[in-house]
Structure formats: C-alpha cells, structure tokens
Amino acid sequence: MTDDILTESYPLYEEEEAGLGLMVAEPPYRELSSLLEDLLSVKGSSFVSLLKEITSHNEFKPLDGENGIFITGGEKAEDYANLLSAARKAVGYGYRVFILPNPKNIRTADFIFERKGVYKMFDLKTIMGKSSAENRLLESIGQTNHVLLNMATDYEPRLLAKDVKTYFEANKNAREVLIIKGNKFLSVSRQFVEGKDYFKMFIKRYLK
After folding, report:
1. CA-based radius of gyration for the chain
2. Pick from 89, 166, 92: which is nearest to 135 by CA?
3. Of 1, 8, 38, 3, whose CA–CA distance to 193 is shortest?
4. Among the residues of the chain, which ranges form H helices?
5. How many CA atoms lie within 13 A of 184 on its CB side?
6. pLDDT digits over 67-116, tens only?
7. In what order do the strands lie in the sheet with 176-181?
8. Residue pair 143/75 in contact by the 8 Å Cβ criterion
9. Please, what sign has the CA dihedral across residues 40, 16, 14, 122?
10. Rounded to an integer, what distance in angstroms lies between the CA atom of residue 123 and that of residue 111?
11. Is the entire prediction scored with pTM above 0.85?
C-alpha cells in the first residue's frame, strides 16, 4: 500500500509533559457524553487535549478480533459496517482509531485518529453516487474540520477536485479532506487546494 500525502501544513498542537515531581489531585470523573459535548466549544491546544482525554476514557474498549480499533458499543448501528471498513483501512496506515458514539442531542463526528502522538477528529462520508461528494462534504460542516471520504465508486477525478475545492471555500475552518481510494490515502489540505495547478496536481495524484 502507498501512503500518498498531498500536503498537510496546518499547525499541530502538541504538548510536552514535564515531570516536576508535584502531587496533583486526580481530575473529577466526567461522562463521555459530556466530553463529546465540549468538543463543540473548544479550540486549539484545548481541543487536542480534549481529544486525548476522550480516547483515554474507560468507556472505550478494544474491538474483539481487531487491532488498533476502539469502540464504546454501537455494533448494531445502521452505518457500523461503513465505519468499521474505514477504520480497518486507517489502521493499515498506522492509525489507532476510536469510533465515537452518538449520544442523544449531541452532533458528533465519527472517529478520532491517533498516529505518532497527533490526534485528529474525522467525519466519515462514504461516496457511492457519481456526483454526491460535494453534498456529503458540506453535510460535515459544524461537526469537524477534517473529513474522511471513502470512495466506494468510480468518481470522475476533476469533479471530485471541484467538490473538494467547493468544500474548502464553504468552510473557512476546514483543514483536511482525507480520501480513501482503494489502497491509497490522499490527504488534501487548504494550502494544496489554494495552490498553483491544483486541479492538475489533484488528478495526477488521484489517478496514480
């Protein structure tokens, strides 16, 4: 498999832990649903710290028979098969994958991915129609700034490039569209979309 990363230039918020030898009180226990609700209101390093706290929550358990996939239940959910398929592909590229629950009245994304200490939250959109990517991408606005597109159909590359560009134009906070095409992951950032020869370069990488 090849990991074809187009570009990824936005700042990563990483924290260093200093062992100061101080005694600190354990933070109070919080329900996972409460932590997920907070995702809607925090940004920057606080957002990444919250992702770490969520993935460390005791409600997450390793999925039986799988490596690197963690769940809180939900195996009977309508979209579980699509979620599991995408999660398995992400694990193949070195990610740990946390499938997020959907508590009542809380609009959450689908995954948290972790690799090499970097945490990102993704909303999954499985593309089956020949011209549905734009609408599916726009649906994710307000949930997360990273979208995972699982291409389950032959999609015209120039049209897909246009759909991705439209998404970045509509969502000024968007950072990344991660495209799964067969055995490849293509990471598309805002800098790439706004750069020179975007359509030409996107098509070249997509068809590679």
Report:
1. 18
2. 166
3. 8
4. 32-38, 44-55, 80-91, 133-139, 157-170, 190-193, 198-207
5. 12
6. 999 999 877 677 889 999 999 999 999 999 999 998 877 888 999 999 99
7. 2-5, 184-189, 176-181, 146-151, 118-127, 111-115, 96-99, 69-71, 61-62
8. no
9. negative
10. 6
11. no
**Cα–Cα distance, 79 to 28 (Å, whole number):** 33
Residue 17 has pLDDT above 70, yes or no: no
Contacts of 204 by beta carbon, 8 Å cutoff, 6+ apart: none
Alpha helices, DSSP H, located in 92-175? 133-139, 157-170
- pLDDT given for residue 108 in this prediction: 86
Facing residues of 161 across strands? none
- pLDDT, one tens digit per residue, over 19-38 is 445 555 556 778 999 999 99
